[in-house]
Amino acid sequence: MSNRTFTMIKPDATGKGNTGAILSMINAAGFRIVAMKMTKLSKEKAGEFYAVHAARPFYGELVEFMSSGPITAAILEKDNAVEDFRKLIGSTNPAEAAEGTIRKLYAASIGENAVHGSDSNENAKIEGDFFFSKLEQF
Ligand code: CMP
């Protein structure tokens, strides 16, 4: 069954000019972009998006970083989208990411890790709806 995941190309990757290269890898891996926008999160919106991590020690740092510059948000469609996309991006910590993954190629640290990928179908829907109205999802 075809399904969907949500991604953000984070401020570090945007600032280094890696947006195009990352989108190219996403397309080459067979994902169809069904929604996309470049935007910048306020601290409030970044805090809301990552509210599930509010009790973690890195939450403040995460919110600061995610609101520090522009991002590209997108919804991606493919069979087994959530799991396959997490394989494509690699481990959260780039030091542990497999060769050829987006984080291995473009991430600098566990905080500045180039891309986000949803961890479940349920969260993919919540996260996609956070950024895109029904009229913006194709
Ligand atoms: P992401 O997939 O966007 O989901 C939550 C984010 O929190 C994660 O990527 C990391 O960027 C960040 N994160 C997780 N663990 C740490 C940590 N120990 N220190 C800083 N940031 C972290």
Give a written overview of the molecule.
The protein has about 140 residues and is an alpha+beta fold. The chain has a single domain (about 5-135), classed as 2-Layer Sandwich (Alpha-Beta Plaits), CATH 3.30.70. The protein has helices at about 10-15, 20-30, 45-50, 60-65, 80-90, 100-105, 120-130, and strands at about 1-10, 30-40, 70-80, 115. A four-stranded antiparallel sheet has the order 2-3-1-4, sandwiched between helices. The longest helix has 11 residues, at about 120-130. It starts with a strand and ends in a 7-residue tail after the last helix. The mean pLDDT is about 95. It binds adenosine-3',5'-cyclic-monophosphate. The site of adenosine-3',5'-cyclic-monophosphate has 9 residues, from helix 4.
Tell me the strand percentage band.
Answer: 15-25%
Biggest sheet, in brief? 4 strands, antiparallel
Low-confidence segments, given as residue ranges, are none
Number of β-strand runs: 4
Tell me the span between the first and last alpha carbons: 17 Å
CATH class categorisation: Alpha Beta
Please state the oligomeric state of the protein chains shown. Answer: single chain
The CATH topology corresponds to: Alpha-Beta Plaits
Bound molecules: adenosine-3',5'-cyclic-monophosphate
Portion in helices = 25-40%
CATH superfamily: Nucleoside diphosphate kinase-like domain
* Radius of gyration over all CA atoms, rounded: 14 Å
Query: Which structural class do you get from the secondary structure elements?
Result: alpha+beta
Shape: globular
